[in-house]
Amino acid sequence: MIIPIRCISCGRVISQHWESFKKRIESGEDAKKVLDELGIKNYCCRSLFLTHVDTAKQIAKYKR
């Protein structure tokens, strides 16, 4: 679905970084470099960004 507002493990607020992360990754930048520049240092927060799958478009196909 959408990125959580807070990290599930540590509780740090991370949602404000999602849009810039997504744009920079789509433009071809390295994920490690982007996360470092955004200040996301914790393993739990980094894994949340790297493994997130946006399924909103897939779910929208099945509206009644």
Note down, in words, how this protein is organized:
It contains four helices and no strands. The protein is mostly helical.
Number of domains: 1
Which H/E pattern describes the elements?
A: HHHH
The N- and C-terminal alpha carbons lie at a distance of 18 Å
- Count all strands and give the number: 0
Mean pLDDT: 91
CATH superfamily, by name, is: Homeodomain-like
- Tell me the quaternary state: single chain
Supply the number of helical segments.
4
CATH architecture classification name: Orthogonal Bundle
Cα Rg: 13 Å
Write down the CATH topology: Arc Repressor Mutant, subunit A
The biggest sheet, with number of strands, parallel, antiparallel or mixed sense and barrel status, is: none
Helix content: 40-55%
Q: Uncertain segments of ≥5 residues (pLDDT<50)?
A: none
Helix and strand composition category: mainly alpha
Q: What keywords describe this structure?
A:
globular, mainly alpha, 64 residues, Arc Repressor Mutant, subunit A, 4 helices, single chain
Compact overview of the structure:
By secondary structure, the chain is an all-alpha fold. Helices cover 48% and strands 0% of the residues.
SSE order and pairing:
Elements: H1 18-26, H2 31-38, H3 43-51, H4 56-60
